[in-house]
Structure formats: C-alpha cells, structure tokens
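Justification of resources, computational component.

The compute hours requested in this renewal are based largely on the per-chain cost of generating structure records like the one below. Each record pairs the submitted sequence with a full structure-token output. That output is archived, and it is also reused by downstream analysis tasks.
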Amino acid sequence: MTDEPPHDTDAPARLGRIDTNLYAEDVALQEAVAREGAGPSRRLINAYGLFCGSEYATDLAAAARRSPLRYESHDPLGNRIDRVIIDPAETRLIEAAVAEGMAADIAGPHPSGPHPPGAAAAPGTAAAAGGETVSRAAAVFLSAQLGTGHLALPVASHAALAALASAMHASGQEAAVSEVLGEWQRRASARRFDPSASPWSEKATLTLGLALAEPPWLPAPGDAPVLAGEIGEPRGRVTVTAKRLAEVRCDADGLLLVAQQPASPGSGPTLVLVPALRDDGRRNGRRLVRRVGLIGGLARATVETEIDAAEGIIVGREGEAAGPLLEARARLGLDTATMAAGLLRQLVSLSRDYVAHTHRGGAFMAAAAEPLCADVAIASEAATALVFRLARSADLAGDVRARAWRRLMTPVTVLAVTAAARQVAGELQAASGGLGMVDQLALRPIADDIAGLHLWTGASPATAAEVLSVLQHAPEAVEIVLEDLLAAAGDDPHLRRAHARIEAILHEPRYLDRRVGELADALGQLAAATILRAHAPAAVADAFIATRCAALGRHTWGQGLYWADTPTILARAWGT
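The structure output for this chain reads:
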C-alpha cells in the first residue's frame, strides 16, 4: 500500500506566541466552562491548556503533520501483515489526549431541574457538581488547536464506548459474554494509551474504533444493513464479513460495527465488537485496502478495509442497535462540533497576525481588516457558547428539557459550527491571499482540518436530514426547545422576530424538506444569540444579533459592523 504525501509538510501546526496557555487567553472558553457546570475542573483544564499552547506540543503537532500514519499491507517477503505504524510524535499527542479522559466513557447522567438556554447552571446542582462532559469538551476544544489527526482515536473510542455501555445496560446476555464485554469496557476506559499490537487479553488498556460502510459513519436507525454476520457457537459469537468498510482509527484494539443477520433480513441491526487480533496474535480477518479520501488530520486516521470471516461478539440484544447508535451519534456530533469550534478559535488567534500584516498595506487595508476580524471573533464566541451548552445537555441527561435540547440541537450545532468554521477559513484565506500570507499564516492546514471534519460528519445534507428526522419522529423535543428559546429571547425584538421566522417555517410542512437547512441555520443562530445576550458583553451580543438575527441575507463577512465596538470585541478575543 502506498502512502500519499501530506499537505503543507513545512507549515507549522500553530503560528503565533509560543508557550502560551490556550485556556487562560480564551475568556469566552473560561466563561463557558464555568457557566455550564465544569468550574471545579478549571484547574485541570488550565493545565491542559498550558500543555496545548506549549512549544513542545506545537512541535509534536508539526512533526505529526509531516509524518502521517503509515499502513503496511505486506512485509518484504510478500506476507500479509496489515500493520499500522504511528509516528512517535502522534503517539505522544494521543497519550496526552487519552490521559485527559477523552477516550473514556462519561459515567452516568446528572439529573437536574430544567434550565432554559439563557440560564446558567445554579450552584449546588448536579451539573455544577459534575460537568464531566463539559470538562471533556474543553479538553477536546483545546487539543483540536493542535490538529485533528491525533483526536480521531480518542473520539472514536469514546463514541464506541458510549454505544457499548448503552447496549450492555439494556441487554440480557449470558454471564460469560457480559463478563468479556465488561472487561473491554473497563480497559478501554483507562486513561493510558498502549499502541502495542497484542491480543486484547494481554493488554491492560484498550482502544476502540468505529468501522462503518459509508459516511456518515453511523447510519441512522432503519437504514439498510452494512454488514453480514451469522450466529455461531457459543451463543453471542458471530462471524463477520464486509466489503468497502471505512474504519476510523484502524489501529484500535477493537472495532464496533453494525451487523445484519442474513437469515433475518427484516430484523434490526445488531452491534458487534470485532477484536483487531485473535487470541493467538493472528489478524482477525481484516485487510487494509486504501486510505479514505479525506483531507486534513483525519486523513491520517481513516482507511478502507475489508473483513473476511472475522470473529466478533454480539453487544446487547440482537436486532436492537438503534438506541446505542443514537448515543454514539450524539457523542460524535458533540466532538465534531467541539473540534470545529477549537479550530475556529485558532483562526481567531491567527487573525491577529493577519491584522499585523495588513497594517503594512496601508490605512485602507488595516481599516478593512478590523471589522472582518471582529466578525470572526463573534462567530468563534457563538460557536463556543453553542458547543458547551450542548455538552451541558449531556451532563443533564436526567432532565427531559436537556434531553430534548440534545436530541434536536446536536445536528443543529454540528451544522452551525462546522459551517461557520469553513466560511471563516475560506474568508481569511481569500483576504490574505493577495498579500501572499496563506502559507505564512499557516491557514491551509487549519482549513484542511475543518474541511475534513465537514466530510467526516457526512457533509451538510446528511446532517440536515438528521434534523428532519428529529422533526418527524420527536416533535415533542422540537416543541420543548422552541419554548426554551422563546423564554430566553425575552423582550428582545430581534430575537422574537427570529423565533417567529422559525415558527413560520415549521408551519409550512409542505416545504419543510426543502427548507430544513434554513431551519437548522436559524435555530443555531437564535440559540447562540440567546446565550450571548444573557452572558456575553453587550459589544459581542449586540454585534452578533444585529448581523445574524436582525439582518437577512448577509453574505459578506465583516460587513454591517461599521457601528460596532470592534476594539472591545477584539480585545476580548485576543486577550489584550
């Protein structure tokens, strides 16, 4: 198997000041962490922010970009080995991410009373006492600013663990099978990374990957089956065969996939855990085919494979994978949006260098750069607010209003944040290209990472289809979210008009399938606006609401802010 050359091998992973604290210099992130219930973890988050902003970590990220994963299908003698070789720099970044708990499952929901989107978690609530998902999201947010390639393994393992735990909770499997799956769950939740290629039974810590047929990586419940398996003996064991399988982190110790019984085509999908190696150390029926055509850091983490007669273990009840898949989708959605928000924050940091260069182009260039960078800054703060409100809804899973928010706003947040990041990356590249600064500002690797995230989630149409599915199958969740948004809008006329536009779209069901993207965009903007109105400085909230909720059809970044207090916005964003 041949390796493709990576993009921008000489570009640094992050341009700007070295040995900085990415958490301490991000006021919006600090406020979101405290507001959404992870305040007790801020010292740990601060320490990880110092690591991610250090020269040591940025050097590791740059080395990882230059040396992507290598996939060796054969040894020099022609024997099939299907071996994955990880660069030491990438290994160290993965170790740091796993040590922060990014691969571990989040233990238990935190029931609490209802919280409208504009309200903060009250001291003494379960969210304030826990906040595990919010704390983990902060770590993902910071780590994404080093790139996305090293995050694919902990993100995939976290989502797979969530599906595994959900399926086991509702299962009635035999004790022997449950004991094996419980051991997988325990070892995969350990905060240590062991990259050695050994049978799972010989390793103290494990990682899980996701193996699925086509993007989006986890098919919606009711979709056509992607694999074929047959029940073998002892019961609970299966033999799995699959073609054209996309594996997220094929170097993981085990793969979680969806299987269909060929003898029961009408039955639902079943979750199957397939170890990478058999107990004797041989390959478990997996063959590497080619690298999947993604770009950015995720291109280093995804490969197309085939599985032939692999040994697997059924997870949960046969034909009941829909619930666990929904949980895994929610975890992947949150992490995708969080990584995109982290990359967007990195673009805010780079915009400072862009402004410094524009001053060399004269007064006109400098005057045009300021509103553009302010627009980027308020987009980043809105993305941060949305992501961490979504993370809190996962921590408050015992609350019906939080569950409704998570159900609808997960795909909405993914659409809103990835779209904003993609647009900002393109705008900054276009704005700086005339000055020959695209490579100098290291914009291209960040843009590639953002584009890779967009493709990783199945692109906008697939995510918009998920919003439509919620509208059709969970109308009560939509009603609850709209009630909360209306309450958070208060007496603000712009927010109330934005809410009325959403209601108008919903009241025309004939065109809903054609306007679902418009609806998702409006929901994301309104939700972010209500949070900013309640918690951000007036300069930020007023600028966001005026350009997103009050203005219709705005297509040019940096426009409509001639009246705004851009120095205050930029001082907050840049920590000056």
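The two ends are 49 Å apart (CA to CA). The longest strand covers residues 302-315.
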